[in-house]
Backbone:
């Protein structure tokens, strides 16, 4: 559960960078520093998730690759926003599944009548 909480916090940081990047582009200012910050944070998120949540780590890897492709800045921001939303959804689903599994493990065999 700690891995998922840490991943969610790191994803929130990435989301903040993506939104700041979008604001810079909207103001017609250079946003290269935010793009670099995003590309630096995503491998950390991949490393965090890779051992236990490989499929989510693969989604983050795809997002990292898409962020470095040679598209226009607006297309890059849109891709980053969609990717962050997909990863957030996957993490939320994983959190629910982990909670359900731990709930089932904590139940005792004769406790069904107490509910």
Residues:
């Amino acid at each position: 559960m700690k891995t998922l909480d840490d991943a969610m916090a790191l994803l929130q940081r990435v989301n903040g960078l993506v939104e700041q990047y979008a604001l810079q582009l909207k103001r017609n200012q250079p946003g290269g520093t935010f793009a670099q910050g995003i590309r630096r944070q995503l491998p950390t998120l991949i490393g965090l998730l890779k051992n236990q949540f490989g499929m989510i780590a693969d989604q983050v890897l795809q997002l990292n690759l898409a962020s470095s492709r040679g598209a226009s800045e607006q297309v890059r921001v849109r891709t980053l926003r969609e990717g962050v939303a997909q990863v957030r959804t996957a993490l939320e689903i994983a959190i629910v599944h982990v909670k359900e599994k731990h709930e089932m493990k904590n139940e005792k065999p004769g406790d069904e009548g107490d509910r």
Summary: Residues 7 and 45 are 6 Å apart (CA to CA).
